[in-house]
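hey
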């Protein structure tokens, strides 16, 4: 099992710059929201149970197709198995596998893709950066390119609570 995917440093820098821009934008949104009545601010949440194996597994709607993910806060990016990429219609045999990815097992290469949306319950994130791996994954991983777009996530009493 591969856990903990990390993008090559130059790709992480691009993600960092994008995160800074999102943070600047969110400060403007927060400032605007602070002036609105509390009743107009809605928080959407989803609850993910810890399974017997100790991991948090969830089924998400990805572009209209259900995908089973293991939540991995150590993965810098959402990672899809080749099989899940096929099911999503991403044509993984036609992708370019040129993004260097560091895993616990060494260096591998993935094909970068952008998913229109990932939805878990009422929580939805749009334009999610992800990678497709050829054979290194047994299951798809819900990494930080999804989790970092949430307002918050917390682990409490055997549950992972995600909020948007």
């Amino acid at each position: 099992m591969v856990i903990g995917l990390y993008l090559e440093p130059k790709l992480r820098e691009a993600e960092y710059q994008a995160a800074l821009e999102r943070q600047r934008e969110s400060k403007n949104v927060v400032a605007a929201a602070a002036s609105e009545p509390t009743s107009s601010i809605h928080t959407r949440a989803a609850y993910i149970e810890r399974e017997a194996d100790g991991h948090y597994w969830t089924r998400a709607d990805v572009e209209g197709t259900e995908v089973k993910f293991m939540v991995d806060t150590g993965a810098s990016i959402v990672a899809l198995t080749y099989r899940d990429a096929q099911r999503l219609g991403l044509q993984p045999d036609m992708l370019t596998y040129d993004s260097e990815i560091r895993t616990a097992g060494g260096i591998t290469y993935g094909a970068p893709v952008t998913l229109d949306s990932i939805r878990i319950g009422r929580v939805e994130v749009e334009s999610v950066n992800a990678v497709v791996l050829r054979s290194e994954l047994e299951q798809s991983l819900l990494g930080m390119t999804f989790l970092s777009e949430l307002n918050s996530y917390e682990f409490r009493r055997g549950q992972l609570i995600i909020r948007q």
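The chain is about 20% helix and 40% strand. Residues 6-163 form a domain with the Cathepsin D, subunit A; domain 1 fold (CATH 2.40.70.10).
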